[in-house]
Structure formats: C-alpha cells, structure tokens
From TrEMBL:
InterPro entries: Anti-sigma-factor_SerPK, HATPase_C_sf, HATPase_dom. Residues 8-133 form the Histidine kinase/HSP90-like ATPase domain. Keywords: ATP-binding, Kinase, Nucleotide-binding, Serine/threonine-protein kinase, Transferase. It comes from the Bacteria. Gene3D superfamilies: Histidine kinase-like ATPase, C-terminal domain. GO terms for molecular function: ATP binding. The keyword 4Fe-4S does not apply. This is ATP-binding protein. It holds the Pfam family HATPase_c_2. It comes from Jingyaoa shaoxingensis. Transmembrane segments: none annotated.
Length: 135
C-alpha cells in the first residue's frame, strides 16, 4: 500500500491525481478505468476540500492498494473533518432535466457508478471512504 497525506486544498487535486496515476501506470491500468478513477478523485477530494473543514485547512490521506485476484485498485480517503457519510446521500433523479433536478448529489452518484464497491466508516474521529475498482 502507498499513501500520500496532503493539505485539503483544491489546488492539490492535481498532486493527488498524479500520485495515483503513477501507481496506475505501474500496473498498466486501462485508460477507461483511469478516467473513471480521475472522476472519483475529483469528486471525493474536492468535497473534502470544500466541506470537511469549516474554518481551517486540514489534511487528507489518500491510500492506494492493489489486489491481484481479482485485479483491482482500492482507494481510501481519510480525513479528520466533520463526520459525513456520502453514501447516505439520495441519488438524484437523472431522468429530470438539470433545471428540474435538485442541486447536489450528482457527484457522489457518479462515484457510485464508477466504482464497484464503496464503504464508509467514521472511526477514531476520522472519515474513511474506501472504494474498489475492478480492472
């Protein structure tokens, strides 16, 4: 397992993406999966930056682990911010037009659609969002 701990600032999203990309390149990750993982990083890291820490800058640890059988990548985002389980967010009604749809929820919906398994826990005063993508 490899990990990076970085300030939860939106300008650090490229650093996190590059860190994960370097590891994906080592295993010859298919481009489609790589793009899906980019969407997940943008959404999860971005939400932590915007909402986890009210009046301060905290950190985010992004852990990457690979499995061989089945071949998969596991990403874990850990922060010390406000407790929040994004999996409790109701999925948006995507049959509605953007004008008719309520604001919010589309990003985590995309995460759910792009990953094969997702788990959330709040433990030791930390949010932990674990996700698996089969490659």
């Amino acid at each position: 397992m490899k990990e990076i701990t970085i300030d939860a600032l939106i300008e650090n999203i490229n650093t996190v993406t590059a860190f994960v990309d370097d590891l994906l390149d080592e295993i010859d990750c298919p481009m489609k999966s790589k793009i899906q993982i980019h969407i997940v990083i943008d959404e999860i890291f971005g939400n932590i930056c915007h909402y986890a820490y009210k009046d301060s800058v905290g950190t985010v640890t992004v852990s990457v682990e690979f499995q061989n059988t089945p071949k998969a990548i596991c990403l874990t985002f850990t922060d010390n911010g406000i407790p929040y389980n994004p999996l409790e967010t109701e999925d948006p009604d995507i049959t509605l037009s953007s004008e008719e749809r309520n604001i919010g929820g589309l990003g985590i919906y995309l995460v759910k659609r792009n990953m094969d398994e997702i788990k959330y826990e709040y433990i030791n005063k930390q949010n932990r969002l674990w996700m698996e993508k089969k490659l």
